[in-house]
């Protein structure tokens, strides 16, 4: 039994501990075991009760289920965990994967789009994925209907990575079961959620950040306004990755999202050569490997009660950037992050996109 992995599973499966809190705990305490031991005291300092922590028995049961399914864990900061994905502040601490792990050392590009895509768009996505695969790129998508399915089909012979919103042993949508099983043998399937998790609406944005974070760039083939594909494109842009879009007819609502992306500065894509030209400047940042946890909490300085009060007084129900708290408090980053960690574990802090926090 891998005790370090067991402790990490307990930590991240605990209801109140998300990726940012997980990363800060490991940066501060060095190991998941030490973090688990420190949580009650941290929560008490934050003025709350200790959060519910996942049991060792539940973590062992999950590990057994992953092993029996023939999958394995990828842990942030170690081994095969993808370097590009690790750059995200909210990178998943643990992934579960099955298939060809060699694909993680290949440059990859995401292709996403509408579930109710037109036949022409699906044909274009399939051909584009095939051509990108012939250039040695792995194609990443979300194993959904429409454009995702077409992209996986086009690149199945050369290398494709599917990110699922539920557990790795759940086939969703059901008609994708044969496709997902084929990718276990000839591609790679990755999940953030534990086995047996049925995908819910709240899981898809988490999946989308993995698609964007794993890839040098994201291509949107067809997307209506406010679609999930546009969320993936926004996440890619926030991560400093290229956003590309295929133009479509202004008469087709499914093309409005792509056309709007191009208006806002996304690169117009017509073929694989356009994609290669766009992403090549980002070469050299892909390979997986060991990466130590960065000290996300800054200097390991334990704040005193006056510092805690001053930082808590700066917080309210409106989200505020952590950098602004550091500036207004006059404190180094380390104590500010530690106070926020204590409040978080006490159940008194909400974390928002863009590195913002608010008092619950």
TrEMBL record:
SUPFAM superfamilies reported for this sequence: MCP/YpsA-like
Domain Smf/DprA SLOG: 77-279
Domain of life: Bacteria
Gene3D superfamilies: 3.40.50.450, Winged helix-like DNA-binding domain superfamily/Winged helix DNA-binding domain
A Pfam family that the UniProt record links to this protein: DNA_processg_A
Residue stretches making up the DprA winged helix domain: 297-355
Family: Belongs to the DprA/Smf family.
Name of this chain's protein: DNA-processing protein DprA
Provenance organism: Sphingomonas alba
């Amino acid at each position: 039994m891998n005790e370090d992995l067991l402790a990490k599973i307990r930590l991240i499966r605990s209801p109140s501990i998300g990726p940012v809190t997980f990363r800060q705990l490991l940066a501060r305490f060095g190991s998941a075991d030490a973090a688990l031991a420190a949580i009650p005291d941290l929560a008490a300092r934050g003025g709350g009760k200790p959060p519910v922590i996942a049991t060792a028995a539940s973590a062992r049961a999950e590990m057994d289920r992953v092993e029996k399914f023939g999958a394995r864990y990828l842990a942030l900061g170690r081994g095969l965990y993808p370097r590009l994905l690790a750059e995200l502040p909210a990178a998943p601490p643990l992934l579960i994967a099955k298939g060809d792990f060699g694909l993680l050392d290949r440059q990859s590009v995401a292709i996403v789009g509408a579930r109710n895509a037109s036949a022409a768009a699906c044909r274009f996505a399939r051909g584009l994925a095939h051509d990108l695969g012939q250039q040695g790129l792995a194609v990443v998508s979300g194993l959904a209907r429409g454009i995702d399915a077409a992209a996986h089909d086009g690149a199945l012979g050369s290398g494709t990575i599917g990110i699922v919103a539920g557990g790795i042993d759940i086939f969703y949508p059901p008609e994708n079961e044969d496709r997902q099983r084929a990718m276990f043998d000839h591609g790679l399937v990755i999940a953030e959620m534990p086995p047996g998790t049925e995908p819910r609406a709240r899981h898809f944005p988490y999946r989308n950040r993995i698609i964007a974070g794993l890839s040098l760039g994201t291509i949107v083939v067809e997307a209506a306004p406010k679609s999930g594909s546009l969320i993936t494109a926004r996440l890619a842009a926030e991560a400093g990755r290229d956003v590309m879009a295929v133009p479509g007819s202004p008469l087709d609502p499914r093309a409005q999202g792509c056309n709007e992306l191009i208006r806002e500065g996304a690169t117009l894509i017509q073929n694989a050569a356009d994609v290669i030209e766009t992403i090549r400047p980002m070469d050299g940042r892909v390979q997986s490997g060991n990466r130590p946890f960065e000290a996300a909490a800054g200097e390991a300085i334990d704040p005193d009660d006056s510092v805690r009060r001053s930082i808590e007084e700066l917080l309210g129900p409106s989200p505020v950037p952590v950098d602004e708290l550091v500036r207004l408090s006059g404190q180094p980053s380390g104590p500010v992050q530690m106070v926020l960690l204590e409040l978080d574990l006490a159940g008194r802090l909400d974390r928002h996109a863009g590195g913002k926090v608010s008092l619950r």
